[in-house]
Amino acid sequence: MRPVDHAEASSHFIEATAHLEFHDRRLWDLRLKRDREAHGIAEWEELRNLASAIKEHTLSHLADYLEQFEAQAIKNGAHVHWARDASEHNQTVYDILAAHDAKTLVKSKSMLTDECEMRPFLETRGIKVIETDLGERIQQLDDEPPSHIVVPAVHKLRGDVSAVFARTIGSEPGNNDVHYLAEAMRQNTRPYFLRAEAGMTGANFAVAENGSFVVCTNEGNADLSANVPKLHIACIGIEKIIPKIEHLGVFIRMLSRSALGSPITQYTSHFRAPRPGAELHIVLVDNGRTQRLGMPDFWYSLKCIRCGACMNTCPVYRRSGGLSYGATYSGPIGIIMDPVFDIRKYSNLPYASTLNGSCTSVCPVKINIHEQIYKWRQIMTERNQLPLVKKEAIRIIGKVMSEPGLYRAAISATGLAIERLPRFAIYNWLNPWGRQREVPATPKQSFRSWYLENRSRR
Amino acid sequence: MTSRDTILAAVQANQPAPVQLPEIPQFEQSARILVEQFQEALVRMGGKLASFGDGYDLDTLVKSLFPDAKVICSATPEACGTRPLDQNATPASLADVDVAIVRAAFGVAETGSVWLSEDELQVNALAYLAQHLVVLLDPVRIVGNLHDAYSHPRFKTARYAVLVTGPSATADIEGVLIHGAQGVRSLTMLMVPI
Amino acid sequence: MRVGLFIPCYIDAFFPEVGIATLQLLERFGIDVAYPLDQTCCGQPMANSGCQKDAAGAEALFVKNFREFDLIVTPSGSCAHHVREHLDAIAQTPEVAKVRGGTYELVEFLHDVVKARDFPWAEFPHKVGLHNACTTLRKLRTAKASEIEEPDFSKPLDLLRKVRGIEFVMPSRPDECCGFGGTFSVFEEPVSAKMGYDKVEDHHRAGAEYIVSADMSCLMHQRGCAERLGLDIRFIHIAQVLNGSRP
User: What is the ipTM of this complex?
Assistant: First the structure.
């Protein structure tokens, strides 16, 4: 299985100029909106420090907090299940649905369920799964994964959405009006909410203090999924735990501001206990999280609250699109999470970065993303995941740079080559630099030569 | 070993060295009048404000705001609506509600949010299946910021609690803002003392 | 105080004028500065690729060349950052620690150590777009980054403001990465080039005649993009401007 080739995928993304232009502009706009919100809160950097410390404290005491959460949830009348990995998660969800004769499941956005590839698992077992988040639903109907964790169809233009809807839900072909398309989806989804036997949500935060969990949406689709059917299943990664209700003040203040530049999502929903006559099932999921917890350089990635701010600010992400990373989690946070799932498949991702550090600066929980990207590159080398060409090139450069004589010879050879070779010899497929850029001209002498002539007493 | 035991054992073995839990300080808040701050935030999030003139009763006012509404359900005894709301009704039976009227327990000035739970909603799904939502709020029950909101004791006891901020919205298609994505198309606030 | 001058390989090879300007500038402030002749590289290209073993040779040679100096100054933020934060492919002896702790990027050296605040010999009557390289900006913290909520500050601007005739113009995305990123410029060429094109076009639209930076690597990439695009915009290192270059 070949590793994901981000560079190759990005070249296609860049060729689609209208899509690229919108994608970059839209996400940069979200970044600017985030800046305006941050600027309006005097204590913004202090909130970041608090959010980071609360998460680090919780992760360093996670076993206790998980047990507290479970005990409280059970007291509240919820059922609590534990799933070690994706397939156990999927099986658990299926078993709950089967036990309730549920054939249709409406769900709000949960990256965890994408991570576990739950939908195909359920669909092959006869469960109809309806994504209700508009972006996720567009992607479901188009048989494509979500490209961004907050705005899953941001890589599509209205014409694309119109074509998908015309093909799948019977909307008017060629009608690209966004209001029309949104209304068509509303009308299409409403009957599913009303008939589904089960509803599923993820959770942004799970509060150990009282066994409750919080789901943030703008559409209200989590509230519909949870409050209409008699069965509510909540899939929650174990890293979502926070200690107390009061801590929500910090996180809710930061989440939507970081994600979309709005002070709060239209709906911030807190679920503690099932409705009378209904059932609440919580599935706590590991799927590699405990492994990451034990990695001294990488456990900080578990602080992530899934705001997507790192994606919005990342200049590489904006110009390559989430799908080019080949994983549920893309962009900067994806780079540091995905190699844990599959080191070979994602061995190129740590190089899809300039290490510019903007992601780290916008992260509301202060994950040191760019530093972890740097460290992952070391792991890739140690685990022999570098392509041979690259490995050899670096080895040669390293050798040249460790011996002054070799270095000086290389400098003059390069200079001569650039000076003497015809254009076609420099600008060809062997030289990636020269595809879209000019190569620097060669000066009359190197700095060292000048220094020897003008300053050195040697 | 159960999955639970396996996971907890792995967590226990892998969790990093203890980090202290910080105290959340009291942040300085704007000196602005809370009601004004609240209303400005609400409008920014797409909510509407309506006023209760003299001599109006709630039902008349709501009918005048939504002249085409056939089914109006109120979760608060302050209004009758056109159809009584049965607390034991199935959620799906509310699918044809045009306008729902609720009274929020409190509001949050920082964000323009209102707090509702199963007590205020009677049937939780009411606030989502209705096409439009009218929310009553006593202006003295507005707290400053979200830290204040989360210290409210009802978060501990409510089975379901929601901070609603404006109508249902999405911008998932080309960043164009839509109101009425899956939930209510509009949210109208009435600042009415209890 | 004896200062060792570290000139990164690409400046040695392609932009000696930047090294010359750096040297002359330090000499103007009376600094006793010397350039060890056997220097090569700080190890960053290998280390940034994750190849610690391949960086070790260059790093050991760096320490050997610079251990006799009190401080080391380099006209490259990413190299200074690498030495201070990541020169760890070799055993961490006291000598290594001294070299690491004593390495400065040129602007921070002039601003914080020399406390230079005037450049009477300098004149640059042009519209300038200032480019702060990401490592220099966010990791060496030579200026406020747009993401962070803190009081505004900028060491390069503090210095450049004293240059006669200089006029600053702001691009729409002042501190978005230009896409050089070291080996990124080769291995992720499509995105790198697009980022470079966007950067130079942004400065051009803002009216910049020159893009000035403390990092020649970024400028090398941006210039390569601008030349291919046929954009009428020039590139110059901050050392040259502060040293009184009149192009």
Answer: 0.98
